[in-house]
Amino acid sequence: MDICKLSFEDSQFDFVFSSGVLEHAKHPESSVAEVMRVLKKGGTILNKVITKDHRSFSKHSGCHAFSFRQYAEKEWSEISLKKFYQNQLLPIEWKKAFYSTWIEY
Known about the structure:
The structure is a single chain. Strands 1-2 form a two-stranded parallel ribbon. α1 (28-38) runs parallel beside α3. It is elongated, with a radius of gyration of 15 Å. The chain has helices at 28-38, 73-80, 91-104, and strands spanning 13-19, 39-48. The protein is of the alpha+beta class and 105 residues long.
């Protein structure tokens, strides 16, 4: 299922949990908004977001935790084309994405 377009109705869940999922979304801010959309008012949300570039844990040379910051968006998309989408937000940007969505909620 596409995390940026869940097939659930609005306000369907009392509890939403994800671990190591949101950072793989093509549009991270949309993934946060979508997770919040399916959460009932007063519900609980728990998301573990891994903010490092996952390739920094592999044998892929030349990458570090925030390699994506060294490239323009188009360049990074081309580099990552044959791989899954990888984190493109810094920890403070994830916090802002959740906070701004929560305020709207």
